[in-house]
């Protein structure tokens, strides 16, 4: 946080404030120009291994593979400079901005800019935090403002006249406020008798920027630390004064943090220092940090994350140092604050807005990671376990966390790839759009097959390597059988519509265990039925398609699908991804089944299909990835369920795009059981074991919170920060015409994938789908007792437990049922009496 830059955003501040803040800005303004940031891990030095991090501080994922989301004034923030971040008891994220405190619930920003409401002398907020008992939001700002909010009412405490940078309630319940004038011990009572600690009381300087409570004390050190413009000091309770820490340079202190292992870390303008235990001298951080650090936070695995003035975000682990910069998605290189929420998401306050950094399920690799071109059409794995990527611009091979272009010959530099297939030993086969078939070895291009030496055209859409070493090529002109040797490719036989094949255009090839060959095309599914036992083995002596009899599958008899994109054999069943869902049959019978939107699939076209090692099904489409659990598939196949459930993934889960592509193949299960998917903007990878742990059938969103209840625009219920929601049995007056319920599940991982259902018990007992809407309104309810309920789920997942609240709608006197009963009875009595009298007179 740079106070001079803060002041630059505001007009009309006192000249005195500018002068004081200038003292802090001087050091930051002279920061040396440094090298650009990088997301590549660096080799840890011997000193790095000695740093005071926990043994678990190992980077499991490259920093560039985290999902980055940003918000600014275009997304609802009142100001692009966010100064501080905190999380309330209800899960909401609170921000301190120059246009006031802001509450974010995962869907919308609620701005408290009205000073008449907050009672702040000026809207600008520098700090926001929760009280230790999680009952109050505490906000500090300019002109000595400290306010507290319980969810409905703001209370104001004036603390001096300058900037209040940070507040703290220590273990003894003392309320501290760090300010330009010194460090205040705040009296929250109406008396307002605050005590001010300055250089006279031992502070290195009056200007106090940070205040921190260490979890333990040592001798006279009570564990309360003050960071000033001229160094660090701790509170000496016996003398009610501060003692300067001599082992930390006498310069501006920017941030303080106590790690989980008890190590105290202090960031100053002359570097970062740490103290392993109270009472020991501070030591310099084992490796130099390339910029002045403004903020510190400990990651979920023990790595140290740092925010800086000019270099963005850094992460220090035992095995790596990595950086994230503006080039990697940060909106601004100056970071004011770092905050880790309850779900281990990292929130970043910057001068360019709010940023969320999330360790997502999926990793995405694009041109920035070395891939030659972004439009991926094919994926393969070589004998060494490296992933190969084929795009419309060339071929790339995995090398560590990055990819390198396969170079060495002009033929592969700009080849438009349609298919990849691993051959024997060190060979890789490439089917291309305009260059025919290529055979690659470690030395480069070793052979090629084009229209000039055996193909009908230079377009090879799919390559399949057979156990015999022969190749099957799917082309627009039919099927080719090719003999493959190192340095030599020869067409042995052709099969097309002229000699019995039902169609020519072939886009996928699937081999079943019986030697049957299934060919997918744009118009139908074709089957080459074996005419001999083990035809694949007999290719060695009889290299001919005469070993099979081609026939067309009668798709219209059981499905609306026509275009078959990919196929797979799993547990004695054939599965095909088509333009209208999935089709499947047992290997032993012709009992076809069709799984489509009518059964609950979230999309029609499925471009790729794979099973992971736990038999869960993964489908790739232009609308994202769907995962169907083994239990779901078994239930559908055995006709126990008719409407399937699924887990759906998109950009919110770390995918660079939900638009996956077709290809040969467009998805892959690697030898290490990683799933890879081709997309229009790069390649996407996921560990299916992590997805299973995060299965939508067991992973439910946070409980739904009732944000507000309004009756005829009058607020009846607002979020509660001083207690759990306990309001029940609301009474609506007889004149109430409209009641509105606002609700939200405060889930920050995948808020775009949330959907809601509501019901009003006593009016309509059925659940009503509300989609992503977070409010519902009822009008002109008849008198009676009701219970409003709302629940949420991730798309395709299971609903969480409903949140509910009871209320009653009172009726007007003549609306009440008892009154009408009484009137009816009275009318009957009067009618009876009148009839009796008439009868008596007669």
UniProtKB/TrEMBL annotation:
Signal sequence: where?
Answer: 1-31
Transcription recorded as keyword: no
Domain called Two component regulator three Y: residue spans = 748-802
Classification via InterPro entries: Ig-like_fold, Reg_prop, WD40/YVTN_repeat-like_dom_sf, Y_Y_Y
Domain of life the protein comes from: Bacteria
Q: Does the keyword Mitochondrion apply?
A: no
Q: Give UniProt keywords alphabetically.
A: Membrane, Phosphoprotein, Signal, Transmembrane, Transmembrane helix
Name of this protein: Two-component regulator propeller domain-containing protein
Organism from which the protein derives: Pseudidiomarina sp. PP-1MA
